[in-house]
Amino acid sequence: VLDSQYGTYVWPCAVVLAQYLWAHRRSPAGKRVLEIGAGVSLPGVVAARCGAQVILSDSEELPQCLQSCRSSCLMNRLPHVPVLGLTWGRVSPELLSLAPIDIILGSDVFFDPKDFEDILTTIYFLLEKNPHAQFWTTYQVRSADWSIEALLYKWNLKSIHVPLHSFGADKEHLASSSMPGRHTIEMMIISLAQSEGT
């Protein structure tokens, strides 16, 4: 992949999330998986190769990213994986008609703070529709001020931190990159918080 713009480059977070999927490859097998903000779709492709029923999605406003999803599927002999245009924060017919989901994947979707609430609005909608589902996400810590804690609380979501060493993703060569700056990658699993009294 030659272009390092958003969804046309394999970012270190995608490599880490793909490593998690591979380390836990029995978990996605037979499950229904949706990757949001998929771009070149490395985590989604790995999930499909592990036996998951995968749907890839990226913004309906980014046809180049949707084409990247399709190209990745073809290059990995996964021609039947559906690719949908889903824009964060927007309730579209495609979002409303999604089949049940077990796992939502998102690598480095928490990139621009202006998108954080739209992302979590979409995740909340999907988790409300699929209360047993989880959102597996990796993100790069770009600022000490980076936090979604208040938004998680607002949307009645909880998160569990997943240490990278627990799935062999703490090696520098795994998520190394030629990008300037520090590359601290974190992973968390987000789910619906339990209502009081349940």
Automatic annotation (TrEMBL):
InterPro entries per record: Methyltransf_16, SAM-dependent_MTases_sf
A biological process from GO: methylation
This protein's UniProt keywords: Chromatin regulator, Cytoplasm, Developmental protein, Methyltransferase, Nucleus, S-adenosyl-L-methionine, Transferase
Reactions catalysed, as given in the entry: L-arginyl-[protein] + 2 S-adenosyl-L-methionine = N(omega),N(omega)-dimethyl-L-arginyl-[protein] + 2 S-adenosyl-L-homocysteine + 2 H(+)
The keyword Nucleotide-binding is annotated on this UniProt entry: no
Family of this protein: Belongs to the methyltransferase superfamily. METTL23 family.
Assembly: Interacts with HSPA5, HSP90B1, TUBULIN, UGGT1 and UGGT2. Interacts with TET3. Interacts with STPG4.
Function: Histone methyltransferase that dimethylates histone H3 at 'Arg-17', forming asymmetric dimethylarginine (H3R17me2a), leading to activate transcription via chromatin remodeling. Maternal factor involved in epigenetic chromatin reprogramming of the paternal genome in the zygote: mediates H3R17me2a, promoting histone H3.3 incorporation in the male pronucleus, leading to TET3 recruitment and subsequent DNA demethylation.
Protein name as it appears in the record: Histone-arginine methyltransferase METTL23
Organism listed in the record: Irena cyanogastra (Philippine fairy-bluebird)
This protein's encoding gene: Mettl23
